[in-house]
Amino acid sequence: MLEIQNIHKSFGETTVLSGVDLQIGKGDVVVVLGPSGSGKTTLLRCINFLEKADKGEAIFGDIQVDLHQASKKQIQAIRKRTAFVFQNYNLFNNKTVLENVTEGLIIGRKIPKEKAIEIAKNALNKVELEDKYTAYPAELSGGQQQRVGIARAVALSPDIILFDEPTSALDPELVGEVLEVMKTIAKEGTTMLVVTHEMSFAKDVANKVVFMDGGVVVEEGPPKEFFENPKEERTRKFLRRVLPDDFIYHI
Amino acid sequence: MPNGLDIPFLIDTFFVALTGVPIAMLITIVSLLIALPLGFLLALTRINRMPILNQFSRVYVSFVRGTPVIVQIFIIYNSVPLLLGTIFEKYNINMNVYEVNPIWYAFIVFSLNTIATLIEVFRSAINTVSKGQLEAAHSVGLTTAQAFIRIIIPQTLVVALPNICNATVNLIKATSLGYAMSLPEITLKAQVAANASYNYIEAYIAIFIIYLLICSLVEYAFKRYEKRLRKYQIAPAA
Amino acid sequence: MEKYFDATYIWESIPALLPFLKVTFMVAGLSVLFGSLLGLLLAIMKLGKNKLSQQIAHGYTTVMRCTPSIVLLFLIYYGVPAIFINFGINLNDMSSAFFVVITFSLQFGALMSEVIRSAYESIDKGQYEAAVSVGLSNTQAYGRIIFPQAFVVALPNFGNALLELMKEGALAYTIGLIDVMGKANLIIAGNYNSHALEIYIGLSLIYWVLSIMIEQFFLKLEKIFSKGRKDLKTA
Ligand SMILES: Nc1ncnc2c1ncn2[C@@H]1O[C@H](COP(=O)(O)OP(=O)(O)O)[C@@H](O)[C@H]1O
Ligand SMILES: [Mg+2]
Q1: Among A81, A187, B76, C134, which has the minimal tally of Cβ within 10 Å of its Cβ?
Q2: Record: fold of A1-81+160-250
Q3: Where does the record place the ABC transporter domain (chain A) (predicted)?
Q4: Do B116 and B25 belong together in one domain?
């Protein structure tokens, strides 16, 4: 459903992505792992054109675009099929919770207001924020803000939702509520590309794990295989560093 | 004057006006020396909500910041002789109040004005230096006075420096109003020079350049100093 | 020359001065209008990618920051007609309000360019990214998300710039504008320079009340626009 081919991206002298390929099928939950600075965020941003890749292609169902020189129309078309959940939420500070969700529906998708509000309320109920419609982002906890961020993405019913470390800005006790919501929407068949350091999420929810390091994909595979039987030395090293000793046996 | 500028006159006036610079700088420095400590102390009375002094500072700041400097100058220039006259008469002091050097008026006006600005500058700067700093100082056995001198004030100054720079530039510019007190500073000197020949444009270009030079230099000096301070001190998070 | 203090002059001066606020307001209003347009242009130059126009805009702001109002005022008053006479246009009979508005528009423009620039820069670029990621166009992202937030940030600084303008505007009397300040000087001259102190005190009361009103007005506005949005105010 989404295929990324040969993405390259440098910032001045530093090369961040050097030829990344990625295949995601409908309903897949793909988790991207990798040390900090390995280019995970940049990969997601290039897919959504928040960053312009130096080279690369995306095949998105029936559309195929050059990631380096996409037209405005193509960019809009891809963005209509994707949604982004940001590490630091990026809720619109000047809009209420409900307006945060309806904004993209009414203005971006031209959905009639009545209908948009109905969709937005459904999405917010799904993330258990039915009592916060009229609150402003500044009045919410981090966990609540991120759940609005997820509702905002879900409401657009995109073909795929891109998550960039959605829980890493949260206090530890708030991580659970956000992961729960992500699990729920994954079970509903939402296609997701998730950058995260939450290994349990990767193990329980993903059907594919991709390990990136130094701007390339080092290894990828189903989570069971990936965690129990990593093939590459670099992967093993990374897993030893980030996993508790009894991770595999416990979960 | 369709034939362009009288360049020789411009250059002459530039040097005439330059002789007004020392007076302008003297006023600036004296006013700052008076206003810096007083502004800081009054800022403390605002922060600690000291009765009477707090209200007084509030009204004082509001008035000075709410009225034009030129009006403040006229008020001081007209009221001080009146006051002094009464006092001299009462105590039989034989002195003519109209022979007082106008620079004294300038000191008073610009100090009073700068104090008001600095109260606000220090108030917000002190607020950004966290309360934790005072508590930490107490916890290692410093007295409140020591904590202020060694911990709080140095940090406050770093935070306040850009605004003190602004206040200084504004003060230098405000000395151009010294003409209203017959003070022979930069602007008045140039005006007098121009009066004879009606070469006003040249005169104002000359002093325009002088103010530009002085203020840029002052800003540059403050920036340099700020950089040096920041090297040794981690600025407290705002 | 009588040299005693008589408070009745204060109360008598105020009603005589108040009608001339009209002139003060008119000159200030026009300067705010033209100055804001100039400030917007300068801010766009500063935020744009072109290095040369960045430098021009920053240089202009520095020059304005370093020039006393009275110097700028006279420079414009004598300089502008001298320039225009070279093109055969005679501005010598223009009203002094004309030169006052030019002067303070130039000055206010520099102030506003900094107000606009810093307000714009205070908005996290994630706001723009989130907007386009939910399908808003570039224009919609700016119009609906960035500018409304920047506006709230700019409000108090705009209020301060306005106060500054009003106070500096008092110097317009030096080139003959009859606003409240100019009228006060006329009254004093009419009294053969006696009781100047009382008149100036009356004048200062007018300015003071006006400043407090402007300040309160902007505090109210800020409250209305930042309702419930705490981090906008602290941003
Ligand atoms: N806008 C940028 N300008 C310059 N360098 C950047 C920029 N964005 C990211 N980088 C650099 O690219 C590298 C990869 O960043 P990122 O994609 O954020 O990694 P990750 O998300 O895996 O931690 C880092 O070294 C980072 O410093
Ligand atoms: Mg990242």
Answers
A1: A187
A2: Rossmann fold (3.40.50)
A3: 2-239
A4: yes
In whole angstroms, what is the distance from residue A185 CA to residue B176 CA? 69
Atom number, ligand 1, closest to the C-alpha of residue A215 = 14
Judge whether C167 is closer than 8 Å to chain B, CB to CB: yes
Residues B87 and B3 in one domain: no
Task: Supply the DSSP string of chain A, one letter for each residue.
Answer: -EEEEEEEEEETTEEEEEEEEEEE-TT-EEEEE--TTSSHHHHHHHHTTSS--SEEEEEETTEEEESSS--HHHHHHHHHHEEEE-TT----TTS-HHHHHHHIIIIIS---HHHHHHHHHHHHHHTT-TT-TT--GGGS-HHHHHHHHHHHHHHT--SEEEEESTTTTS-HHHHHHHHHHHHHHHHTT--EEEE-S-HHHHHHH-SEEEEEETTEEEEEE-HHHHHHS--SHHHHHHHHHHS-TTHHHH-
pLDDT tier for residue A192 given thresholds of 50, 70 and 90: very high
Which residues make Cβ contacts (< 8 Å) with residue B24, sequence separation at least 6? B172, B175, B176, B178, B185, B186, B214
Task: Look at chain C and report how many structural domains it folds into.
Answer: 1
pLDDT for residue C202: 95
A90 and C135: CB-CB below 8 Å? Answer: no
Average pLDDT along chain A: 93
The answer to whether position B237 is within a domain reads no
Q: Are residues B81 and B138 in the same domain?
A: yes
Domain ranges of chain A: 1-81+160-250, 90-157
Cα separation, B130 vs B147, whole angstroms: 13
Count up the domains in chain B and report the number.
2
Please give the residue of chain C at the shortest CA–CA distance from B59: C208
For chain A, the maximum distance between any two Cα atoms, rounded to a whole number of angstroms, is 55
Find out whether the beta carbon of A11 lies less than 6 Å from any atom of ligand 1: yes
Q: Hey, are the CB atoms on A83 and C134 less than 8 Å from each other?
A: yes
Q: B160 and B52 in one domain? A: yes
A95 contacts on C by Cβ (under 8 Å): 145
* CA of B18 vs chain C CAs: smallest distance (Å): 15
Handedness of CA C2, C3, C8, C14 (dihedral sign): positive
- Cross-chain residue pair A90–C127, CB shorter than 8 Å: yes
User: Binning pLDDT at 50, 70 and 90, where does residue B186 land?
Assistant: confident
Helix orientation angle between C180-190 and C196-225, rounded to the nearest 10 degrees: 170
In Å, how far is C51's CA from the nearest CA of chain A?
19
Q: What is the mean pLDDT of residues B138-146?
A: 85
Domain that holds residue B12: 1-20+184-232
pLDDT band at C232 (very low <50, low <70, confident <90, very high): very low
The ipTM (two decimal places) reads 0.90
Nearest-Cα residue of chain C relative to residue B213: C66
Read off the CATH number of the domain in which C199 is found. 1.10.3720.10
- Is residue B58 domain-shared with residue B111, that is, in the same domain? yes
**Which residue range is the domain that position C90 belongs to?**
8-234
Taking the CA of residue A12 as reference, the ligand 1 atom at the shortest distance is 4
User: Is there a domain that residue B238 lies in?
Assistant: no
How are the residues of chain B apportioned to helix, strand and coil, as percentages rounded to the nearest 5?
Answer: 85, 0, 15
- Do C24 and C169 form a contact (C-beta atoms < 8 A)? yes
